[in-house]
Amino acid sequence: TAGDPEMxxxxxxxxxxRSVLARWREPGGWRWSGPARAAGPAAAGAGSGxxxxxxxxxxxxxxxxxxxxxxxAGMSARVEVFDLCRDVAAGPPRWTATLVEE
Length: 102
Description:
By secondary structure, this protein is mostly beta strands. 0% of the residues lie in helices and 58% in strands. A 5-stranded antiparallel beta sheet has the order 1-2-7-8-9, with no helix packed on it. A two-stranded antiparallel sheet has the order 3-6. A two-stranded antiparallel ribbon has the order 4-5. The chain is globular, with a radius of gyration of 20 Å. 6% of the residues are buried.
């Protein structure tokens, strides 16, 4: 389909998309940031160490386009499944690739 990714570069290797298994769009919106680790005083009598600190701040996220694809880094390479993500509102577009565990 027009607009589907045909190839991508990951860790210095060129992957060619063999087939698109699925495509979808995730709407943006407000999300809360995740927890962070910070050094700080430990609870009384518990000794010193890192404690979890949650900085809950809302973050506005843009819409994302996603494709689940089968791709290989060469004609004889093993075909693997990846999720490719394009941040729609980013300029220039920001792409990420995630290997799908099977």
